[in-house]
Amino acid sequence: MTTLRTKSLRIGHFGYCLAMLLPLAFAPLHLAAQSQSSTAAQPPLRFEVASIRPHKFAGDEPSNRRILPGGRFVATATTVRTLIRIASGLDDNRMSGAPGWIDNELFDINATIADHAEVKTPEQFQQLILSLLEERFGFKFHREQKEGSVYWLELNKPGKLGPALKPSGPDSQANMSNNSNGARSEMKISKMSMADVAAGLRRQAGRPVEDHTGLTGDFDFEIEWSPEETADSLYPSLFTVLKDQLGLKLQPAKGTVETLVIDQIERPSAN
């Protein structure tokens, strides 16, 4: 046993945007498998002070999470399910053992990282949220692996990119955003590898996506599609857009699917 993506998601300047995106867009972080050398080179960040209070519902407030300058993390109207999703990098359908309150009760969090350290990597952010769950919510879990349905992200035609898929230029800034209003979804990518793109497509595709394109380097693109294609849809399906605009395809396959089993989770300890 191991103890331990709002609809608008962005990567840009880490200080402001990291908290909203990275754990939802990147592949799961295997917390128990970090090497000692990696830990020594980059010690895990920890919150020195963390205020966690039940959210006072006053209407239709948006759920929001932000990293601010000075090593501050601020979350409003956030569920514990969301925190677990961030820390593990796994979607809800790959979790089990959760009590109902982690979906129904909302919390406001105001926390400061020890020594006001700045978050610089996705792994650091996941570690921060993990430590918060461990220390204040008594979070414990273990991981299980089983065979399941995945997609392989592949080139539709060997050696040929679609017209909208461009290698990143020297001035390109790392950014990934996903937005949806129910009738239209969009993804904007800049300076991202195909492995990042595959991980970012996980939620849209509805199952894990593995990069099998063989493409190296970073890429830029913008695409729009209909999340539920019907006869009167204004946009084509995700599968059609990937093929026609990016020269990529999602090939159904079998693979190893990791799931998270929650062994213990409690309402937060007192401030």
From TrEMBL:
Keywords from the UniProt entry: Signal
Region (Disordered): 162-184
Position of the signal peptide: 1-32
Family matches, as Pfam families: DUF3738
Compositionally biased intervals (Polar residues): 170-183
Source domain of life: Bacteria
Record has Signal as a keyword: yes
InterPro entries in alphabetical order: DUF3738
Database matches in NCBIfam families: Soli_TIGR03435
The name this protein goes by in its record: TIGR03435 family protein
Organism from which the protein derives: Edaphobacter dinghuensis
